[in-house]
């Protein structure tokens, strides 16, 4: 019988490629990480070394902030779009999904068009208040970029999850006299819990590891771990430090996704 | 007509603001790409001059992105479809582990994967300098999406019964795979394929580290143009990217909807 027990053999080519081009290189990365002057202590540098620690803290703070803001906006918009139908609804939904395919560099360019030196926000504020607001080239710009990147993904997750809600539960709550706010707090949000956890984890992990947007906006004011790793590697040729920092970063994003999956149950999909 | 509560208008306002945030810069970028002089505005005249310049400067990156994406699709089909089948049909308890492993290149930042590849294979000069180095990165990153898309559809149909029926009529494994498994998994394969093409065309995190001056892809070229060219050229280049990626995205959503109905 070829199926059944032996079916697993069909996964062998994929596993072989994975082992040769991911597992093996990762083992090498792990080894290089401990090969510098600090030895294996390089893996602790992210907390013991002030500069790296600052970089870690600002990356975590930025990602957490982006996650909270994305979830708040996407919950409002996602529930609204799934529950209401109005003229132009389909167009609105497809417009929101448009940036799904944008790489980080393009998102960075969008931030420059919005909040850069010749950007829309600067133009509007200089006309209205006589003071030009430019914040693209710093943590503010990065925040806007990650928001831009994450919102479409999270809205789609929320919408799919709202679609599966059982309207009877809300009816029951309402017939028992619950207000709209109580229904939202006690029925809708708990039911969306798994979707919120998984979408939030994905948003957090993506913001932690994203590189393209930070690279496009790159200035000395942006201090995030992926950019630090990139600089260690290309500008200082400090391969050991770059390797150990990327292992630490990879462990954080993987752990965030894994924790969300065990919390929310199956179906936490990692996405680009 | 029922009167809408204030809450409705508040939600609508947030939704429209979010939509504006996402769409306005795209519209600005498109406008800037076909405007004679962005700082003067549209009244300076519309032109395809910048698109022409992008073509002259970056044509090579556009073709390279297309063939890397197609090669990546070929690899993920050859590796991913059998793997998805194995994961659905095998009773082994290691199946979950295999799935976990294959997803790792997506759970870990592309930067880490790229550094690992460079440190492990960077000294192999011919490989490092060729576009195959980029292809390897793209295959690692897109394979989980292909596997998952195909897996979802395969898991929703009763492959075991269908195959048993065919086997009882004397169909060999190869024949069953081609005439039963593949046709039934088609919506998942289609959605996975479009996903792989879209992701590969837009991949930057890995590609920036893996490319050489002779193996630039479209997103790498974009980063280059944003940093060193005038705004109109960066915009026109973005426009070219949009023209390539948006049809893929639209097709992907249509196919994913179809596969979802089959898979869920």
- Largest sheet report of chain A: none
Main pleated-sheet profile of chain B: none
Query: What is the C-level CATH assignment of chain A?
Result: Mainly Alpha
Pattern of helices and strands of chain A: HHHHHHHHHHHH
The Cα radius of gyration of chain B reads 23 Å
Arithmetic mean of pLDDT of chain B: 88
What structural class do the secondary elements of chain B suggest?
Answer: mainly alpha
Helix proportion of residues of chain A, in percent?
over 70%
Distance between the termini of chain B: 36 Å
Instruction: Provide the CATH topology of chain A.
Output: MetI-like fold
Q: Could you tell me the radius of gyration of chain A in angstroms?
A: 22 Å
**Oligomerization:** heterodimer
Element-by-element helix/strand order of chain B = HHHHHHHHHHH
| CATH homologous superfamily designation of chain A | MetI-like
Question: What's the end-to-end separation of chain A, in Å?
Answer: 38 Å
Which tags fit this structure?
heterodimer; A: 272 residues; mainly alpha; MetI-like fold; 12 helices; disordered C terminus; B: 264 residues
Compose a concise summary of this entry.
The complex is a heterodimer of chains A (272) and B (264). Chain A has 272 residues and is an all-alpha fold.
Overview of this structure, please?
In chain A, 72% of the residues lie in helices and 0% in strands. Chain A has 272 residues and is mainly alpha-helical. Chain A has a single domain (27-264), classed as MetI-like fold (Orthogonal Bundle), CATH 1.10.3720.10. Chain A starts with 11 loop residues before the first helix and ends in an 8-residue tail after the last helix. Residues 267-272 of chain A have low confidence and may be disordered. Chain B is mainly α. Chain B has one domain (57-263): MetI-like (MetI-like fold, Orthogonal Bundle), CATH 1.10.3720. Helices cover 81% and strands 0% of the residues of chain B. Chain B has helices at 6-33, 49-89, 95-107, 110-121, 125-129, 131-156, 159-168, 173-202, 205-210, 218-228, 231-263. At the A-B interface, helix 1, helix 3, helix 4, helix 5 and helix 7 of A face helix 1, helix 2, helix 3, helix 4 and helix 6 of B.
């Amino acid at each position: 019988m070829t199926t059944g027990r032996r079916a697993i053999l069909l996964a062998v080519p994929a596993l072989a490629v994975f082992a040769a081009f991911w597992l093996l290189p990762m083992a090498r990365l792990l080894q290089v990480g401990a090969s510098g002057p600090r030895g294996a202590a390089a893996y602790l540098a992210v907390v013991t070394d002030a500069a790296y620690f600052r970089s870690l803290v600002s990356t975590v703070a930025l990602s957490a902030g982006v996650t909270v803001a994305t979830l708040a906006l996407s919950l409002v918009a996602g529930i609204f779009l799934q529950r209401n139908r109005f003229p132009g609804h389909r167009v609105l939904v497809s417009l929101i999904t448009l940036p799904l395919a944008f790489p980080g560099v393009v998102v960075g360019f969008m931030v420059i068009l919005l909040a850069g030196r010749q950007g829309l926000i600067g133009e509007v504020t200089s006309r209205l208040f006589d003071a030009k607001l430019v914040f693209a080239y710093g943590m503010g710009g990065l925040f806007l970029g990650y928001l831009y990147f994450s919102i479409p993904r999270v809205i789609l997750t929320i919408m799919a999850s709202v679609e599966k809600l059982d309207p009877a539960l809300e009816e029951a709550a309402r017939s028992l006299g619950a207000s709209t706010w109580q229904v939202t707090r006690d029925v809708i949000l708990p039911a969306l819990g798994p979707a919120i956890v998984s979408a939030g984890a994905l948003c957090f992990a993506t913001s932690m590891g994203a590189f393209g947007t930070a690279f496009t906006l790159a200035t000395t004011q942006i201090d995030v771990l992926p950019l630090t790793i990139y600089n260690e590697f290309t500008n200082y040729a400090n391969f050991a430090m770059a390797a150990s920092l990327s292992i630490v970063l990879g462990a954080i994003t993987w752990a965030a996704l894994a924790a969300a999956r065990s919390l929310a149950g199956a179906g936490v999909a990692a996405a680009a | 007509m029922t009167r809408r509560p204030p809450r409705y208008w508040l939600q609508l306002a947030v939704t429209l603001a979010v939509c504006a945030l996402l769409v306005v810069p795209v519209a600005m970028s498109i406008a800037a790409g076909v405007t004679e002089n962005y700082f003067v505005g549209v009244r300076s005249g519309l032109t395809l001059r910048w698109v022409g310049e992008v073509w002259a400067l970056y044509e090579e990156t556009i073709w390279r992105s297309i063939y890397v994406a197609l090669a990546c699709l070929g690899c993920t089909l050859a590796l991913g479809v059998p793997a998805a089948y194995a994961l659905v049909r095998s009773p082994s308890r290691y199946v979950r582990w295999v799935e976990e492993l294959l997803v790792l290149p997506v759970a870990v930042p592309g930067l880490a994967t790229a550094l690992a590849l460079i440190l492990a294979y960077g000294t192999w000069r011919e490989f490092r300098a060729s576009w195959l180095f980029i292809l390897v990165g793209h295959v690692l990153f897109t394979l989980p999406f292909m596997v998952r898309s195909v897996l979802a559809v395969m898991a929703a149909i009763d492959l075991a019964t269908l195959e048993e029926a065919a086997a009882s009529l004397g169909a060999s494994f190869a024949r069953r795979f081609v005439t039963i498994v593949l046709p039934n998994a088609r919506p998942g394969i289609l959605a996975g394929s479009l996903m792989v093409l879209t992701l590969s065309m837009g991949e930057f995190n890995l590609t920036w580290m893996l490319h050489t001056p002779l193996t630039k892809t479209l997103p790498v070229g974009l980063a280059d143009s944003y940093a060193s060219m005038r705004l109109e050229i960066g915009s026109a280049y973005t426009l070219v990217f949009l023209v390539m990626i948006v049809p893929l995205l639209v097709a992907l959503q249509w196919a994913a909807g179809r596969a979802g109905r089959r898979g869920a």
